[in-house]
Amino acid sequence: MNRKVLFIGLGAGLAVGLLALWVAGQAAGAGNTVVRYDRESKYYRIRVVDYLNEGRRCLQFSRSRGIQSSMILGEPDQLDLRYSRSMVAALALHPAPKQVLLVGLGGGSIPKFIQKHFPDLHLDIVELDPDIVKVCQEFFQFKAAASTRVIVMDGRMYLKRSSQTYDVILLDAYAGDRVPFHLTTLEFVQLVKSRLNTGGLAASNLWEPAANRFFHAELKTYQMTFPQTYLFKCGTSGNFIVFGSLADQATTANEWANRAKTLAAGKVFGFSLASLVRSEYMRLADLRIAEQPLTDDKAPVDTLRHESPQGFEEGQPP
Amino acid sequence: MTMRLGLLTTVFLAGGALMSLEMASFRLVEPEFGSGIEVWGSLISVFLGGLAIGAVAGGWLADRRPALWKLGLVLLAGGAVTAILPLCSDPVFAFTFPGEGAPLPPEWLAPSAAEGTGGQITIYQPPDLRWPALTAGAILFGLPAILLGMVSPYAARLFVHQLPNMGSGVGQVYGVSTVGSIIGTLGTAFYLVSWMGTTWLLALNGLLLAALGLVLTAAHALCRDRHPAA
Asked: Could you report the per-residue pLDDT of A58-91, keeping only the tens digit for each?
C-alpha cells in the first residue's frame, strides 16, 4: 500500500518536472527566432534557425553548441562568419588556383562565394552527412554548378581513396564544436599534402576560443608537414585558420595582400580581403611550439583541449 | 578463500581489459572507416557476438575437468592476440576495404539527382561501410572477445562449489566482472587514451591479460595439493 503511494508520487513528480523543463525550454527559445528545420540526421541534430532581428539564418547542430554556418537572409552569397572570410584568403595565397577541395559543406557559404566570384574554379566538396547537403540546398540557397561536385563521404576516406589532386584544400569539418580526431593527425595532414599539386596549399579552420594543448599540438602538426605555414586569428570569433603551403619560399603579408587585391579586382566581396590578410597575417614557422604533434596512434584531442598549453617560445602567442 | 578472492580479481581485471580493448578498437578503426554510426555499431556487435560465443564455449569447457590452469591458458591466449592487434590492423583494413589512391570507382561516380529545391547537384554516394567495417571488426576483435567471454562462466564454475549457492556465486562473478568493465571503460576514456597511444594501450591490455594467465597457471601448480582437480 505504502509502496504503491510512493511509486505514484514519484511518477507524478517526474511528470511535473519534465513538463516544467519543456515549458522552460519553449520560453527560452521564444523571441525573434523561427526554427525552420529541426531533425535528427544520421550524425547530428540539424537545426536551421532564423534570427529575424539580425536578419540571419544559422545552421546549428544542437541548441547551444554554437553556430556552424550563418547566412544574411537578403544576401545569400555573402561570407557572414568572420572565419569563412579568412578561409578564402587561401585562394589569394595560391598564384593561380584551378582545382579546389572543401571538406565539410555546412551551410555552403564558402562554395556559394566561390561559385559566384570564381565560376571557372573546379570545386569538389566532401560532406559526411547527406542530410546536410539537402538542408544546404533547401534553406541556404546552395545551387548546382557544372564545376561543382558534392561527394557524400568521410573527408579522410575520400582523400585516401581518390587520386584526384588539388591546388587548394580547405578543411572545415566540424562535429559540433570539435574536429573529429582522425582529421587532426600527422597521418591525415600528410595525406592532405599528398593530394596537393605542386605549390598547392591547405587551410584548416580551428575553433579554439581558449588556448589549449590541442591547439598547439595541431599547429605543430601542420608546422612539421608543410614547408610554409601561416596562422590567421579571425578577430574575436575564437577561430584560427592555419595555412600550410608547398611553396618554396615564404609569402610576405604584402605579397599576399597584393594578390588578394588582384583577386578581388572588379568583384564585390562585401569586405576587403587584402586588409584582412594584412591584419591577420602571421608566420607560423617563426613560433617554436613545445607540444608534440598528433598522430593516429596518439591524438587525445578531447583531453588536450581541456589542458593549458606551455607558451610559445618565440614570436607572439596568438 | 584465497582461491575465491583470486577468481574475483581475475574476472575484475579481465572485465576491465575487455572494455579497455573495446575503447581502443574505436581508436584503431576510426582513421580508416571514419566515426560514423555504422562503424560504432559494427564494433559493438562484434564484441557482443564474441562474448556470446565465448560464454557458450567457456561454459562448455568449464564442465569438462575444470582447472585453474585452463582458465590461465585462456587468458594467456586472449592477452597474446590482443597485444599483436596493432600489427594486424593495416593488412586487415587493406583486405576488407581495398582501393587506396585509386580513381573514384565507377559505382560512386554514377551521379544521382539530389532531392531538394536548390536545383540539381551532382552528388556522389559513398561506399557501403557496413560490411567492410563489420568484417574488419570481426577479424581483428572477434577472437579476443571470444577468449575474454570465456572467462566469466569458467571462473563461475570454479567459484561455485555447491549447487544451493550457485545463484549468488554466479551473480558475484558477473557483478565483479561488470564493475571491472566500468573501471576499464572510464579509466581508458578519462586517462589511458591521453597517457598512451592506441598501440601501447593494446599492448598493455595484452600484457596484463597474459600476466594474469601466467599467475593463474602458477597458482594452479602451487595449490594442487590442497585443491585436487574437481
From this structure: 998 876 557 888 998 888 888 888 899 999 999 9
B198 and A297 within 8 Å at the Cβ level: the answer is yes
Optimal mutation site among A214, A296, A304, interface B, most CBs of chain B within 10 A: A296
C-alpha cell at A90: 587561401
How crowded is the C-beta side of A186, counted as CA atoms within 13 Å?
A: 14
Candidates 3.40.50, 1.10.3470, 1.20.1250, 3.40.1130; correct CATH number of B2-96+106-223? 1.20.1250
pLDDT digits (tens, 9 = 90+) for B191-230: 998 899 899 999 999 999 999 999 999 988 887 655 544 4
Give whole-number Cα distances, B9 to A20, B172, B227, B230, in Å: 46, 11, 19, 21
The sign of the dihedral angle between the CA atoms of A28, A34, A39, A44 is negative
Model pTM score: 0.82
For residue A74, is it within any domain? no
ipTM of the complex: 0.73
Bridge partners for A169 per DSSP: A101, A202
pLDDT category of residue A8 using cuts at 50, 70 and 90? confident
Q: Is A276 helix (H, G, I), strand (E, B) or coil?
A: helix
- The CATH number for A120's domain is 3.40.50.150
The alpha carbon of residue A127 is apart from the nearest alpha carbon of chain B, in Å, by: 10
What is the pairing mode between strands A122-127 and A67-72? unpaired
